[in-house]
Specification:
The chain contains 16 helices and 19 strands. The chain has 450 residues and is an alpha+beta fold. The chain folds into 4 domains: 86 residues, Uridine Diphospho-n-acetylenolpyruvylglucosamine Reductase, domain 2, CATH 3.30.43; 119 residues, Uridine Diphospho-n-acetylenolpyruvylglucosamine Reductase, domain 3; 103 residues, Alpha-Beta Plaits, CATH 3.30.70; 83 residues, Alpha-Beta Plaits (2-Layer Sandwich). Strands 12, 13, 14, 15, 16, 17, 18 and 19 form an 8-stranded antiparallel β-sheet that branches. A 5-stranded antiparallel β-sheet has the order 5-6-10-8-9. It has a 4-stranded mixed β-sheet with strand order 1-2-4-3. Helix 13 runs antiparallel to helix 14. The two termini are 29 Å apart. The relative contact order is 0.12. Bound molecules: flavin-adenine dinucleotide.
Length: 450
């Protein structure tokens, strides 16, 4: 391996092999997933760097993990033993914003919120808005097909990408897609790369779609006696058209958010729902939402002040860090049809009671995408076992309801063992064969994603 390392150091400028310096690049935000000890961390500065690193890894059979900002929640960017971690964060230039075509061409290390701020300066909007938007990268968003709050109305990351440039496991550079409204030529390799979690190629450039910024914005905060009552409102709103966002927090989550932020949300409520409406009729729809909420037993407050609305939505953005302060956590990311949310909530409550564990549930209710988060004492082996069993059973409950084991965080290494349970052996084998076409030596993030 010393031959490999010396050739790597000669080929690219920013190579680190010092274990202390590499420590910061060993894992993402999923503390549960294993993280290996890498041979080297390489900070990519150009497409040429990426091609060189991939070529050497291929030649020496060294596994390569691509890393964006490391905010992933499935262990997908965790280092592998004896591998290379290729950090894309330094390739962070916004190359072009085309106001007429309403597109942006970016390097993968651009932070999501920075792209949106640059779009806003041109009166435009980069829509995908994961809760981590201030800290996660566009490359990571593409590789996980990240969601966020406005997916029910505007779709996930895949609905906002037009073209990708990627380095395959062969070292070849491909350019997929077209910056057009329509394009049906051949197989859709862009869609295949989006959500592939670094297993098919290293994304080195993307052209994404921008939209005009919506004119009106109104927000409703409603406190319900129970989670089920809050879900009744979600279903009722769904019948009236898409809200821009409907976010749910149960009582455990609300208490955790209050403890962290001193926001003073109603801690006795069974659940808090935050709904946002955009467009010319936003205020009227928010008013209607507040009235409906009251009919379901809620106390509701509506505002069409955007600043007040964003402050309310911040409570939801704080949910994950707030719950993480309560103990060790196992975060689920299940998604079901919204009409199945009442059954999912009932199953989660039953699982929590049977295993005697605390589960805080929050998430993107408008999509049916919830994050039941199991909180446990890591020093207590029995509590750890109960938490793990509850985590598995929540996944099982989602599958039994026709749902998915991950709606937006990705499979990573955390959920790889569960993939067959959802897709079946034949479909998984097909994924393995597709990977072999992109990455014949199997060096790109092996063992992750499926
Ligand atoms: C507080 C908090 C809130 C969050 N909220 C949301 C949310 O609302 N919605 C949501 O979807 N996620 C959310 N996440 C999870 C996370 O932010 C997303 O998965 C995000 O897309 C990861 O981006 P990243 O740049 O940090 O990628 P990383 O964690 O570095 O990598 C994620 C995956 O992408 C691959 N990858 C990264 N860059 C590239 C590239 N250039 N080419 C190929 N593969 C690449 C990695 O190998 C890995 O498999 C949240 C995380 C936190 C900590």
């Amino acid at each position: 391996m010393s031959d490999f390392l010396s050739r790597l150091a000669a080929a690219v400028p920013a190579v680190t092999t010092d274990p202390d310096a590499m420590e910061a690049y060993r894992r993402d935000q999923c503390l549960l997933a294993e993280a290996g000890r890498p041979l080297a961390v390489v900070k990519a500065g150009s497409v040429e760097d990426v091609v060189a690193v991939v070529g050497l890894c291929r030649q020496y059979g060294v596994p390569l993990v691509t890393r964006g900002a490391g905010t992933g929640l499935a262990g997908g960017a965790n280092a592998l033993d004896g591998g290379v971690v290729l950090v894309m964060a330094g390739m962070d230039r916004i190359l072009e914003i085309d106001e007429v075509a309403r597109t942006a061409r970016v390097e993968p290390g651009v932070i999501n919120a920075d792209l949106d701020r640059a779009a806003a300066a041109a009166g435009l909007w980069y829509v995908p808005d994961p809760g981590s938007r201030e800290i996660c990268s566009i490359g990571g968003n593409l590789a996980t097909n990240a969601g966020g709050m406005c997916c029910a109305k505007y779709g996930t990351t895949q609905d906002h990408v037009l073209e990708l440039t990627a380095v395959l496991g062969t070292g070849e550079v491909i350019r997929t897609g077209r910056a057009t409204r329509k394009n049906v030529v051949g197989l859709d390799l862009t869609r295949l790369l989006v959500g592939s979690e670094g297993t098919l190629g290293v994304i080195v450039e993307a052209t994404v779609r921008l939209r005009p910024r919506p004119q009106g914005l109104a927000t409703v905060a409603a406190t319900f006696p129970s989670v089920q009552a809050a879900i009744d409102l979600v279903l009722a709103l769904g019948r009236e058209g898409d809200a821009a966002a409907i976010e749910l927090m149960d009582r455990t989550t609300v208490r955790a958010v209050n403890a962290m932020t001193r926001m003073g949300l109603d801690e006795e409520a069974g659940a808090v729902l935050l709904a946002q409406f955009d467009g010319a009729d936003a205020a009227a729809r928010a008013q209607r939402c507040a009235e409906l909420a009251a009919a379901f037993g809620a106390e509701a407050f509506a505002t069409d002040d955007p600043a007040e609305g964003s402050a309310l939505m911040e409570a939801r953005r704080a949910a994950l860090p707030a719950i993480e302060r309560l103990g060790a956590t196992l975060l689920d990311d299940v998604c079901v049809g919204t009409h199945r949310l009442p059954a999912l909530i009932a199953a989660v409550e039953e699982i929590a009671a049977r295993h005697g564990v605390a589960i805080g549930t929050f998430g993107h209710a408008a999509d049916g995408n919830l994050h039941p988060t199991i909180v446990y004492d890591p020093a207590d082996p029995a509590a750890q076992r109960a938490a793990r069993a509850a985590f598995d059973e929540v996944l099982g409950a989602a599958l039994a309801l026709g749902g998915t084991i991950t709606g937006e965080h990705g499979v990573g290494s955390l959920k790889a063992p569960y993939v067959v349970r959802q897709v079946g052996a034949t479909e998984r084998e097909l994924m393995v064969r597709i990977k072999a076409a992109f990455d014949p030596a199997g060096i790109l993030n092996p063992g992750r994603g499926f």
